[in-house]
Amino acid sequence: MNSKMADHHLARQACIYIRQSTPGQVRFNQESKERQYNLANQAKALGWMPEQIRILDGDLGHSGEQATHRDDFKTLVSDVAMGQVGAIFSLEASRLARSNKDWHRLLELCAITKTLVFDGDGCYDPADFNDGLVLGIKGQFAQAELHIIRARLHGAKLNKAQKGELRFPVPVGFVYDGDKIVLDPDQEVQGAVRAVFELFEQENSAYRVVQRFHQLGLRFPRRAYGGAWDGKLIWGRLTHSRVIGVLANPCYAGTYVFGRYQSCKKIDATGEICSQSRRMPEDQWRVVIPDHHPGYITRDQFLANRKRLVDNRTNIETLAGPAREGLCLLQGLLLCGICGRR
User: Fold this and answer.
1) Per the count of CB atoms within 10 A, which of 4, 45, 91, 179 is most buried?
2) Residue 94: active-site member
């Protein structure tokens, strides 16, 4: 038995915490998962009875950056706080947490409740200064490692995007032909996409485009990603959001863009930190390559369409005011109930 272990440790549970960051790792990195499950044998060898050993593997497939969606980690922290856990077994510090906030909170509770921490290098008592210092440094390395990995991956993506070679899902109307983006060879798909631009040119309103599609009995395609329909086209009713998405996407003007959306962190209604995607202004797009591939409209048409969409908005503060005298006193105030134009 380890010199740091005592009878009161063996009288409580031994928790085996198992985690891999993505579903792909869970599926393909079988050796890592097997090594983590084998920690139960280490707990048995140290004196814990099989009924005292608890396997916490509900966080498989979840990142350790945050505790938000890791229910088993929350359960572990709660049980440690109540003094029900004698030891925590984990392959390495990064399995438990890649956030210093979560890591040091767990260590603080372990020190108070005299809970041991086992990893691949040995046994640690967080209540001991030296052991707590080593565990703290390991937690720092775990968080730093995540930053370094992300920086490398993002740098590689940006370098490839600057050459116009980074592949990502293309909008409806385009497909990949080898490494090149080309128009979808399906003439029905091309016709539906061209109809959106032609009707917007005539009607000057996204709502009117939707109405005309419905009046003409037309359908609009979307490409499914994932599941049984992965990669297949699904035809359905055109919606206003789809029209806006098509008109505002520079890809339809033959422009390759990287960085239109960026991830940012926010605090949700429950107080948890979460990530969301945010649309960036054009001057902050990381990569813009005009005439990268064939398009449905020209660059000038794209800019004109986008300006027309902005002018059509009725929820902005800079609406043109009405005339103060003379005829047409309702100019700028009266809105059309069909198209929304002033």
Assistant:
1) 91
2) no
Please tell me which residue, 67 or 137, carries the higher pLDDT value. 137
Contacts of 237 (CB under 8 A, 6+ apart): 213, 214, 219, 220
Q: Model's pTM, two decimal places?
A: 0.68
pLDDT of residue 319: 47
The CATH class for the domain spanning 174-255+290-312 reads: alpha beta
Helices 129-162 and 100-113: angle between axes, nearest 10 degrees: 160
Task: Read off the DSSP letter of residue 295.
Answer: -
The owner of tokens 């290098």 is 121
Indicate the domain borders of the chain: 7-159, 174-255+290-312
- Which is catalytic among the residues 3, 21, 78, 90? 21
Entry field: residues in the chain: 342
Architecture of the domain defined by 7-159 = 3-Layer(aba) Sandwich (3.40)
Buried b (16+ CB within 10 A) or exposed e, 80-107: bbeeebbbbbbbebbbbbbbeebbbbbb
Q: Kindly indicate the confidence band of residue 328, based on its pLDDT and cuts at 50, 70 and 90.
A: low
Angle at Cα 86 formed by Cα 80 and Cα 88, nearest 5°?
75
What confidence tens digit (pLDDT) does each residue in 20-63 have? 988 888 888 889 999 999 999 999 999 999 999 999 999 999 88
The model's pLDDT over 167-185, given as tens digits with 9 standing for 90+, comes to 989 999 999 998 899 999 9
CA separation for the pair 66, 83 (Å, rounded): 23
Instruction: Tell me whether domains 7-159 and 174-255+290-312 share a fold.
Output: no
CA atoms within 13 A on the CB side of 96: 29
Between the alpha carbon of residue 5 and those of residues 40, 55, 79, 112, the distances in Å are 17, 20, 19, 16
Q: How far apart are the first and last CA of the chain?
A: 82
CB atoms within 10 A of CB 141: 15
